[in-house]
Amino acid sequence: MNASVNLPESSLQLLTELQSSGLRLATPDAEGLSRRGGAGPSDHKAVVIDGVTLMVPVHTHGARASGFVANAPDANGVSVLMRGSIPVAPIAFAKTPRFYKLQTLDGVPYSHIATLHGTDVLATTVLQTCIRYESRKKACKFCAIGQSLAAGRTVAHKTPEQLAEVARAAVLLDGVKHMVLTTGTPPTPDRGAAILCDSARAIRRAVDLPIQAQCEPPDDDAWFARMRDAGIDTLGMHLEVLGEAERARIMPGKATVPVSRYMSAFKAAVEVFGRGQVSTYILAGLGDPPQRVLDIAQQLLALGVYPFVVPFVPISGTPLEDHAPPTPEFMRSILAPLGAMVREAGLRAADIKAGCGKCGACSSLSSFEKVAA
Ligand code: SF4
Asked: What local confidence, expressed as pLDDT, does residue 41 receive?
């Protein structure tokens, strides 16, 4: 989880710039632990700067041309972040977790079942297949859910038993604090809610670990109570893109579920999970103007939903791999006012029980929430 300190203006600027521009690794051995593929945005590496954990793009085209560069870390995992040849700040890289060395009795490496995000989050894509992804024409253009499967870095369906085994090891060996269960969307009306319930039940039987589940809005709001009863603490339903035209262009399959359905699902989910325990991911830089993002964020906050706005990261191998990431100025024009709005609504990242909003590493939003008014 990110530090609870107020950051000076120069640090906020640095974090926003680094997340937009990406980081060049000067030597291959600086590569270490990074996140490629999976559902939603990826191609990141976890770093810690000024006590803040941040996922920074390292495998993208843009990152290879970034003005930020870091050498291989020393024995303590620390290196120096340089802007060109000028040292800017100490930078620490997340260490490879101990549970990555283990495998199941039938020979599946634990790292193919779940991975470490940030420094203390265990994350998995329970179902690595998606109805939206069956045809590239209908798939979300930013998503790489099929790539890590094709590359043999993961398994298509992680069983509840496998997830429970890995979660227990990650808590015992690496002290992970919460878990994210995301999923590709199966061809069933529950949109994956049943699979997430089965997974959560098994994990909670094995270990005391707060869980966030992430899926599209299910057909029936009764699923929210079932998810809570299965041991899920928080829920993410991710809008990603907001404008009708942009949704149809960037995620034609997912856009068949209208924003109005997300809004009614948010309202029903907040009644079950509580204010601030339901969230959505919004990808900034895919065509939605800042004012639209802020207007929708205001509606979400009024419903009690945490609007986790992250900079779009173009992932290699996806149709958007050459799409420019948002500039630091663009991100700032959203995150600075949004940070104040979130604070005023009393829905801060720090109060979320589990999941992306709590981790916060894919955006500098939580740092903007802490800026004194
Ligand atoms: S914010 Fe979510 S996707 Fe990003 S590193 Fe944290 S848990 Fe993973």
From this structure: 42
Which residues constitute the domain of residue 88? 9-369
Distance 29 CA to ligand 1 centre (A): 24
Question: What is the 53 CA–ligand 1 centroid distance (Å)?
Answer: 10
Ligand 1: residue whose CA is nearest its atom 2: 356
Question: Ligand 1 within 6 A of 361 CB?
Answer: yes
CATH code for the domain of 144: 3.20.20.70
- DSSP character string of 49-101: ETTEEEEEE-SSHHHHT-SEEE----TTSEEEEEETTEEEEEEEEPPPPGGGG
> What confidence tier does 9 reach under pLDDT thresholds 50, 70, 90?
confident
Q: Whose CA is nearest to atom 7 of ligand 1?
A: 356
Q: Is the dihedral of CA 134, 136, 137, 139 positive or negative?
A: positive
Question: Does any ligand 1 atom lie closer than 6 A to the CB of residue 44?
Answer: no
- The model's pLDDT over 226-247, given as tens digits with 9 standing for 90+, comes to 999 999 999 999 999 999 999 9
Instruction: Determine the pLDDT at residue 15.
Output: 92
Average pLDDT on 162-187 reads 97
Q: Is the CB of 1 under 6 A from ligand 1?
A: no
Q: Which residue's C-alpha comes closest to atom 3 of ligand 1?
A: 356
What distance in Å separates the CA atoms of residue 317 and residue 237, rounded to the nearest whole number?
Answer: 25
Tokens of 319: 């149709």
pLDDT tens by residue, 274-302: 999 999 999 999 999 999 999 999 999 99
Q: Indicate if ligand 1 lies below 6 Å from the C-beta of 362.
A: yes
Domains contained in the chain, number: 1
Q: Is residue 210 part of a domain?
A: yes
Contact 236, 280 (CB under 8 A): yes
Tens digits of residue pLDDT in 27-68? 654 444 455 544 444 567 889 998 899 999 887 777 888 899
H/E stretch holding 179 reads strand 178-182
Whether residue 2 lies inside any domain: the answer is no
Mutate to test the pocket of ligand 1, among 33, 44, 117, 363 (most ligand atoms within 8 A of CB): 117
Predicted pLDDT of residue 39? 45
Q: Is residue 253 part of a domain?
A: yes
- Does residue 143 fall inside a structural domain? yes
Q: Which atom of ligand 1 is nearest to the CA of 360?
A: 1
Dist CA 159 CA 263 (whole Å):
31
